[in-house]
Design goal:
By secondary structure, this protein is of the alpha/beta class. Helix content is 50%, strand content 16%.
Length: 296
């Protein structure tokens, strides 16, 4: 097991090193090809993407939805190959490929004197945001280790810590670290679009369907008077667009209303580039007892 672990860790380092020396267009061309093969051969995950898009974009024809599914697989392949840029480039090099669209939204939130929570959905290449934040802001984020892939877990932690992101464990200690960061004026990053553990979320509409949504963001925002933003790194022809959105209703005492506000912000971001969202994730897998959804 130890030899396997060392081999995997070394293989990851080698992969990142090789990718980081490729031009971004070459990374993406290889990624698109790999994603196309994934689209052709991985029926299970691709079927989940088809089901999710049918739920979320019923107004589109089946042909248009299938085009998004195919493109999303290629976008996922690009995300893998862009690991060379996300984890192998210096922040200075990465920033040359980024266009910050509305940074004033973030700067105004920081200048307010209140804490700032940044939700980072699985859209575009979210790992590229590490370069932006570590070059201009201090940030703390939660991290849940993958016990089945310890080499990958250690590698990701190494890279994020190298970029200056303070990683906190996804437990009570981590929550205390987030609160400390908010009180000291440091940014806090959390995932707004994952399925939380039992008892840690509520059902709120996402594209008109119930989705089990984490309440940690809104709970922290309400208790510590924090502003909540959404940050995305959308893939463009020559690089990435960094976009910020204000998330509404996060001071609401009603957790369902607050969760609805988070999902609406995520929808707004996705609608800018639907094929760049991780549709292969089982976002609607957990459903209320009376739900009629037959999830694949």
């Amino acid at each position: 097991m130890k030899k396997t672990y060392k081999f995997q860790h070394s293989a990851l380092r080698c992969f990142i090193f090789c990718c980081s020396n490729l031009p971004l267009p070459v990374m993406r061309a290889i990624g698109r090809s790999c994603g196309l093969l994934y689209y052709i051969f991985n029926n299970r995950r691709v079927d989940i993407a088809r089901y999710n898009l049918k739920l979320c974009y019923p107004q589109l024809s089946q042909e248009k939805r299938e085009k998004i599914v195919k493109n999303q697989c290629m976008q996922a392949g690009m995300w893998v190959m862009e690991a060379g840029a996300a984890w192998g480039w210096t922040p200075e090099k990465a920033m040359k490929k980024m266009t910050i669209r509305n940074e004033r939204t973030l700067l105004d939130a920081e200048a307010s004197g209140r804490g700032v929570i940044v939700g980072i959905p699985h859209l575009g290449n979210w790992e590229m945001l590490n370069h932006y934040f570590c070059s201009r802001h201090e940030m703390t984020a939660l991290f849940k280790p993958d016990d089945k892939q310890p080499a990958l877990t250690e590698f990701i932690l190494e890279q994020r810590n190298r970029n200056g992101i303070i990683m906190a464990p996804a437990d009570k200690r981590g929550i205390r670290a987030l609160i400390k960061s908010l009180r000291s004026g440091r940014l806090v990053a959390l995932l707004p679009d994952h399925i939380p553990s039992e008892g840690m979320g509520v059902y709120a509409p996402f594209y008109g369907h119930p989705a089990y949504t984490d309440t940690l963001i809104s709970s922290l925002a309400r208790k510590h008077d924090a502003i909540v933003l959404l940050a995305t790194a959308l893939r463009t022809k020559n690089g990435f667009d960094i976009v910020f959105d204000v998330v509404k209703n996060q001071s609401s005492e009603d957790p369902c209303q607050a969760a609805k506000g988070i999902n609406e912000a995520v929808e707004t971001a996705i609608n800018r580039a639907p094929s760049q969202f991780q549709w292969m994730y089982g976002r609607f897998k957990k459903q209320p007892a009376d739900s009629s959804l037959n999830y694949p």
